[in-house]
Amino acid sequence: MKQILITGACQHNLKNISLVLPHQQLIVITGVSGSGKSSLAFDTLFAEGQRRYLESLSTQARHFLQDFDRPQVTSIEGLCPAIAIEQKPLPRNPRSTVGTISEIHDFLRVLYTRLGSVFCSSCGQMIRSHTIPQMVDEILAWPPGSRLWVLAPLG
Q1: What's the pLDDT score for residue 64?
Q2: Closest of 53, 27, 52 to residue 40, by C-alpha
Q3: Residue 76's beta-bridge partner residues?
Q4: Measured CA distances, 128 to 44, 88, 114, 147 (Å)
Q5: Rounded to whole angstroms, what are the CA distances from 37 to 31, 47, 76, 84, 153?
Q6: How many other CB atoms sit within 10 Å of the CB of residue 99?
Q7: Which of 13, 56, 74, 115 has a CA positioned 20 to 30 A from the CA of residue 123?
Q8: Cα(40)–Cα(4) distance, rounded to whole angstroms?
Q9: Which CA distances in Å does 53 have to 62, 79, 80, 93, 150?
Q10: Domain 3-86+99-140: which CATH class?
Q11: How high is the mean pLDDT in each 10-residue block of the chain (155 residues)?
């Protein structure tokens, strides 16, 4: 499905509206105060997208996360997991980005850390973790008199 189909949305200020929103397009929701813009964007689309995403997680993971109630809507089809950035004063930190404000940066960091491969910038060889017995075996295989540097972070 290349669109989001919303049928019978009645959340807060919405009066049984139905609409189709295209995927991969910039969509602007405008209207006078109280017309239901936030009800559609945050309380319907975002809440349902988050609720569906959280349902896909394990029970243990869901235990630590905020529950989202099902919005008052007949159906929503074609909806992907959602990230919402509310209209509010942004942090005054000049290093803030869309990734840090939306908190997706934290998820991406975990994803790349778990699934990514690290390579040495000097020789291009892949860096792997080793168990203590593997390290001992490697060092014992070196010629006698070899030098070894043991480095560790401080603090």
Answers
A1: 67
A2: 27
A3: 6
A4: 45, 43, 13, 21
A5: 7, 14, 17, 13, 50
A6: 14
A7: 115
A8: 13
A9: 10, 10, 8, 30, 44
A10: alpha beta
A11: 93 94 91 93 91 79 73 93 75 80 80 83 91 94 94 85
